[in-house]
Amino acid sequence: MISKLESFFAKVLPSPFTLSIGLTLLTLLLSICFGDYNNANSTFFSTMNAWQSGLWNQDLLVFGYQMMLILVLGHVLVLSKPMNALLELVSNSATSNTKAIILISASTMLMGFFNWGLGLIFGAILARKIGEKSERENLGINYPLIGALGYSGMMIWHGGISGSAPLKASETGHLHSIMKEYPEGFPSEVSTVETIFSSSNLIIFSILLISVPIIFSRLKHSGRSKTIPKLLSKSVSNSEEKMSHPFEITPLLNWIFGGLLLICFSVVYLEDLLELDITPNMLNFFMLGLGIVLHKSIKNYLLSLSEAIKGASGILIQFPLYFGIIGVMRDSGLALDFAQFFISISNETTLPIFTFISSGIVNIFVPSGGGQWAIQGPIAMESAAQLGVPIPKIIMALSYGDQVTNMLQPFWALPLLAITKLKASDIFPFTFILFIIGSFIFIAGLLIF
After folding, report:
1. pTM of the entire predicted model
2. Confidence band, pLDDT 50/70/90 cuts, at residue 64
3. What span, in angstroms and rounded, lies between the C-alpha atoms of 195 and 393?
4. Which of 83, 103, 215, 390 is deepest in the core (most CB within 10 A)?
5. Are 400 and 446 in contact (CB under 8 A)?
6. CA distance 148 to 238
7. Contacting residues for 264 by C-beta, under 8 A, at least 6 apart
8. What are the Cα distances from residue 70, in Å, to 229, 280, 286?
9. Is the model's pLDDT at 106 over the cut of 80?
10. Is the distance from CB of 163 to CB of 369 less than 8 angstroms?
11. pLDDT value for 443
12. Of the spans 34-48, 153-167, 216-230, which averages the highest pLDDT?
């Protein structure tokens, strides 16, 4: 089965950049034909305006830059000798395909549950290190499979501690602010105790944590090998050191400046850390300071930075393309139409399931948890209120649908592909299986709990 999936995706799946262009053209066509721009005279011109406003939306561009920094700074951090040694220690237990599967799937999902950004970068770099170990010691580990499992944290992130919908819903007064009308007694916020830390969500997560390693360990696969470029950059040569400024080759400047960054980080973000409220800015701040401290010199840090930026260059232009899709889906009402269609055919029992399905479809076009909540959250809450469905259950149904289709949408896989040097067609046979496993478990969980 795996070999057939590999052949299929190798033939039909284009590069992520080509796919982003195809999704853009499809979204534009749907908007022109079916978009609702409040009775505008021309849906074509309205679509073009919505597209360009999404492409260059300042808030989204800031978000895109934050994501680029997460990728680059995370990569630079791991290029330091101490972090590389730590990853070598972690990857030492991956002496066979089965052990590698258990190690990377369990650790990546645990990290993804804690924070989506950490899970994404950790999974990518650990997959790379396991691949290097396999090639170095001729272990025959299936590198594309390991790369796909390094992406598995994105299948559980929205139900985790950094999940956009549960966190927004927990803010005082947020639910009332996004709804036009709400019945008496409707909660203005829902605590994360009822969503992220509910017994049902923790059970579902635990089942995934156990079942994914077991299923992939038992699957027969081709064990394809790939040439893996070395992760670590070359050391600075003696001639380069002699040509460098003395400040650039001494660790003193790194320790002073990096230490100041870490002290500032601790002062500013101590309260957020205690509340486990980790944001992209916080993550980047920490990785910047720690990365500078752990590199032996400014010269060495700059060499690592140059190498890390190469891995990010291929995804830079794709962020605005998806931002354009988000703009069109939002302004044309297409995202809302998808959600309303499924909700219109729902009853008290099926509403969570159809919310899950519609959320998954919308995520293909709008691969942003926060953006999706802003678009779909209000109609989901209003429908739950009308049909008497528990609000926490609908919030998690939306979150599950959003996260599981990340296994079909390569947008968030771009950092992993850049670090592992894999292609989307290499990992998609396995992420497709992750999608099937996750969908079954999430739907069963929504029906049982």
Report:
1. 0.82
2. confident
3. 7
4. 103
5. yes
6. 40
7. 285, 289
8. 21, 7, 10
9. yes
10. yes
11. 97
12. 153-167
Residue with tokens 């969503």: 195
- The phi, psi pair for 345, rounded to 5°, reads -105, 15
Angle (nearest 5°) at CA 235 between 133 and 239 = 155
Q: Place 232 in a pLDDT band, splitting at 50, 70 and 90.
A: very low
Sequence-distant (6+) residues with CB within 8 A of 67 are 280, 319, 415
| Least confident among 84-98, 286-300, 362-376, 390-404 | 362-376
**Scanning the structure block, which residue is given the tokens 């870490």?**
262
Q: Do 258 and 290 touch, CB atoms closer than 8 A?
A: yes
Cβ contact 305:91 at 8 Å? no
Helices 351-365 and 369-387: crossing angle in degrees, nearest 10, is 160
Identify the pLDDT of residue 233: 42
Asked if pLDDT for residue 378 goes beyond 80, the answer is yes
The pLDDT of residue 234: 44
Candidate from 64-78, 79-93, 101-115, 201-215 with smallest mean pLDDT:
64-78
For residue 58, count CB atoms less than 10 angstroms from its CB and return exposed for 0-12, middle for 13-18, buried for 19 or more. exposed
- 160/207 Cα distance (integer angstroms): 14
Q: Across all residues in the chain, what is the average pLDDT? A: 85
How long a stretch of residues is the chain? 449
Pair of tokens at residue 88: 């070598």
Report which of 236, 3, 15, 226 is spatially closest to residue 128, judged by C-alpha positions.
226
Cβ neighbours around 206 below 10 Å, total: 10
